[in-house]
Design brief:
Keywords: Membrane, Transmembrane, Transmembrane helix
Strand order of the largest sheet: 3-5-4-8-10-9-16-17-14-12-13
Oligomer: single chain
GO molecular function: catalytic activity
Distance between the termini: 70 Å
Number of helices: 20
Helix content: 25-40%
Strand content: 5-15%
Pfam families: Amidase
InterPro entries: Amidase, Amidase_dom, AS_sf
Largest sheet: 11 strands, mixed
Length: about 600
């Protein structure tokens, strides 16, 4: 029992919990009642929060109000803690895959991936396509254009830089990038052009623009983490492992994309570097924290971008911006050179215009440096026919699935019906227990790890250097007790058990990617950030298992709401089942992508001058 008399939850042993469709398990929707706060009000809130004694009491009330104390900190949980989300080697049977040989270079793996793609993807911006319909240039389109001499990486780079300059100006103020060095971009493009002229491109990614979230080291840029101080406090001395692999394939590293400060938010609003806007509607948020990476892919500036996903931070903005967001199994990619903001829940991920491009980029950056007994060898999906796999079983928890806006619920249900009709795939009704408990346990975990990783900097930093909304987040993070952290890891153990049981009968778990579509970017939040816990909880509702449990997950656009904003559907897979997820996402893309409308802000980088 807590200080103010709140009774704590007593959990039954996990094996006693019914996971069937008729389970009596209570579904708890996030208990968020606080109104949106921004501008002067958020500043006043921070001043009160940082006051001695008064601030502590306010924090306790906030945690009590959103059930952290009752469901996590003070709860009685029978399971021991599980401290990491890594998975042991498992022989996961997958249909229609190509097993890559160990020891291949990134460029060699990319060549293997190309062999898995359909023989000839149709031109994605065909001349006869209606101007309002979305068609995207793919990595293969750029490669063919370069190889045929139709255009060159230098010409594309110049168009890209002109688009960045235009979109960054006061008229549009899209705030896609924190830093973009034109001289460096052109230098890379000139080197790539020369390789094509001499017939020696490194891979199909040679000359292809790839943006990098400013949470990942990429020379010659500092890594700011969306702050105005971290790039000075921590030197960037080398490319991150995933960036180095892309560079080895000839990709042009296009710059460092905008993000929510320290990844501590879901909107992408950043008072220091501007707030990345949604290309579908510039008055809406792009989502966070990988806001800039999602927006540049959406706007056609890059077919691929890198993000970091600690709590849906790749998949949420991907869904809001209508692109593919892919987070592999924990441990499948190297975290070397990624800011260590959340050790056990975060990792790099891929944002791409198409599933095919996600496959190619994934093949380039996968980490094969570890012994095979620690992780399975790399399977790539053979996307040579649709459907390329059969008898897929999709687990759906109805109460959770339906806890979304009417437009999202209707669109995602229609997408599932399409999968049944076109491919004969089966939807299984299940119960995924303790969804809200898992969200809160993840919040305690990611917050505790963030403050621990940044402690050596925060202890010396002036509070005024940090955005107002992030000051609130850091205050809450720093208030979590060791008991709260340990209980969160006990809940992680329970959830790992539940999900493994569900995967005994299902291939993937399916859900909407977000509970709401992109919401309005308010002017009063631009300089202060905002506290919008209602929209924040709706955005993150379906993200947690991928991070807290280290499971692979992917989102793909399946439609648009009545206002024309994208809607994403998510598939969560067994550990190491990336190929199956990519198969399913590709089938979903092929079934739903024909009539997607083009974003309001969209650049055609292969147009003829």
């Amino acid at each position: 029992m807590g200080v103010f008399g709140s009774s704590a939850k007593v959990y039954r042993p996990a094996p006693e919990v019914d996971l069937g469709p008729g389970s009596g398990e209570l579904y708890i929707s996030p208990n968020v009642k606080a109104p949106r706060v921004a501008g002067l009000l958020v500043k006043i809130f921070v001043w009160v929060l940082e006051m001695p004694v008064v601030g502590w009491v306010l924090l306790y009330i906030l945690k009590k109000d959103n059930l952290i104390n009752k469901l996590v900190s003070e709860a009685e949980i029978p399971e021991p803690p599980l401290f990491t989300s890594t998975h042991r080697w498992e022989d996961t049977p997958e249909q229609n895959v190509s097993l890559t040989k160990p020891g291949l270079s990134p460029a060699e793996r990319v060549r293997e991936a190309v062999d898995c793609l359909p023989a000839r993807l149709e031109s994605t911006l065909a001349a006869d396509a209606p101007s309002s319909i979305l068609k995207r240039w793919t990595i293969m389109d750029f490669s063919r254009a370069y190889s045929s001499g139709e255009t060159t990486p230098v010409q594309v780079a110049k168009r890209f830089l002109a688009a960045v300059e235009e979109s960054s100006g006061p008229t549009m103020n899209m705030a896609f990038f924190i830093s973009c060095n034109p001289e460096d971009v052109l230098k890379q493009a000139e080197e790539s052009t020369l390789r094509y002229q001499t017939g020696t491109p490194l891979s199909v990614m040679d000359g292809v623009l790839v943006a990098v979230k400013d949470e990942i080291d990429c020379l010659p840029y500092p890594t700011t983490g969306g702050t105005r101080w971290l790039g000075k406090a921590r030197a960037c001395e080398a490319d991150a492992a995933c960036v180095a692999q892309l560079r080895a394939c000839g990709a042009i590293l296009a710059g460092k994309t905008n993000m929510h400060e320290l990844g501590a938010g879901t909107s992408g609003i950043n008072p220091h570097h501007g707030s990345a806007r949604n290309p579908y509607n510039v008055g809406k948020v792009a989502g966070g924290s990988s806001s800039g990476s999602a927006a540049v892919v959406c706007a056609g500036l890059c077919p691929v971008a890198l993000g970091v996903d600690g709590g849906g931070s790749v998949r949420m903005p991907a869904a809001l911006c209508g692109v593919v967001g892919f987070k592999p199994t924990a441990g499948r990619l190297s975290n070397a050179g990624v800011l260590p903001l959340n050790w056990t829940v975060g990792m790099a991920g891929i944002l791409a215009g198409t599933v095919e491009d996600a496959v190619v980029a994934y093949s380039a950056i996968v980490d094969q440096s570890q012994p095979s007994y620690l992780r399975p060898e790399l399977n790539l999906p053979m996307l040579t026919s649709t459907p390329s796999i059969s008898n897929v079983r999709l687990a759906k928890y109805g109460k959770w699935f339906n806890d979304s806006s009417e437009d999202i619920r209707s669109c995602c249900d229609k997408a599932l019906q399409t999968l049944r009709t076109q491919y004969g795939w089966e939807t299984l009704d299940v119960t995924v227990p303790e969804i809200e408990e898992m969200r809160l346990a993840h919040y305690v975990t990611i917050g505790s790890e963030c403050t621990a990783s940044l402690a050596k900097y925060l202890d010396k930093l002036k509070r005024s250097e940090i955005g107002w909304d992030v000051r609130v987040a850091l205050a809450v993070y720093g208030s979590f007790s060791s008991r709260a952290y340990l209980n969160s890891q006990r809940l992680r153990n329970r959830q790992m058990f539940f999900h493994k049981e569900i995967f005994k009968t299902a291939d993937v778990i399916v859900s909407p990617m977000t509970g709401v579509t992109a919401y309005t970017l308010q002017d009063d939040a631009l300089s202060s950030g905002e506290l919008d816990y209602i929209n924040g909880a709706a955005l993150i509702r379906y993200s947690i298992a991928g991070n807290f449990l280290g499971l692979p997950a992917i989102t793909v656009m399946v439609g648009q709401d009545k206002g024309g904003l994208p809607i994403g559907l998510q598939f969560i897979g067994r550990p190491w089942s990336e190929a199956t997820l990519l198969h399913i996402a590709f089938a979903m893309q092929e079934a739903c992508s024909k009539n997607h409308r083009k974003p309001a802000v969209f650049y055609d980088l292969l147009k003829k001058d």
